[in-house]
Design a protein that fits this description.
globular; 16 helices; 372 residues; mainly alpha
Length: 372
Amino acid sequence: MAHLGYFRDEYVGRRRWLDEAAYADLVALCQLLPGPASSELGIAIGMTRAGLPGGLLAWAGFTLPSAIALVAFAYASTHLGTADLRWLRGLQVVAVAVVAQAVWTMAHALAPDRRRLGIAFAAAVVALALPGTPGQLAVIAGGGLAGTVLARQVEGPDVRPVAVPIGRRVAAASLAALGALLVVLPLLRRAVASPALAAFDAYFRSGALVFGGGHVVLPLLRAAVVAPGWVSEPRFLTGYGAAQAVPGPLFTFAAYLGAVEQGPPGGVAGAALALVAIFLPALLLVVGALPFWGLLHGAPPLRAALRGVNAAVVGLLLAALYDPVFTGAIHGPADVGLALVALGLLAVVRMPPWAVVAITAAGGAGLVALGR
């Protein structure tokens, strides 16, 4: 949400690249699409300004600063001794507060009535009962189906499509490429024993299935990299906590994961592969959706299905708050207290996330020093 405000100030207020109506139109589209909304909005603004090259450069400018910072953190956390990393306990605990606040905020925005709140709770039950990718796909599909039945009478704001310098043939080809990659990559992964191909497929699918905001990528990425043993659970939660301390989209968490993966490619090459793979679906979706936006926002059944999906991902994130975030980071009363302090600083004091991360990291180091 902060990114959307920054974009409006910069590109509507200061640079005047867009008017208010066009900006609101792009925000509405990116909120409907799966993937990281703020990154998709940046790509869309770049495309309205300078076509496909503008979209690619906008993505690079928005993504690389935080990705570089997280790769540097990955190298530091890997090569420093454990005695120097007592504060990593705090980074694991702060993830509990961050995800809890995200669940609360998203529930107010995406499940504001009893019907959609019911979809969210049902989705949480399914996600906990069926962990991994099958359960997540069932949650998304079930949410869309429930939305068409239960959320048809919910009305959203009227918007008008914005003009973009991209034809519908290019858009159709982009959507076809997205569909083809979703089908072909898993088949190639089974046929070819390539760690790089397996990693690309895992991050690509994670980026393609995210609805509702960047935090929802947490359970998808955990299923993709922790379950097969590429990244350990503590290292995963540590990186997620560190991702809260850097500016930029949360999807750059993938760069950290690619850098710390056990086995090839790993390092900078692994980070670059993960970063491209997880953002590629967003790029293909924006290129494919912008020219057809006039048809999309005029389809009430699709809107109802997407409202159901958005409610379901609240439940998906609620399930992730319990497992792996809470179960992986909370090991006693001291951790509970530290998590409550972090949540209070975020939700009540409204302290910037990077400051909360720094305070919680120091608190974690203190608990380790005291033997708690």
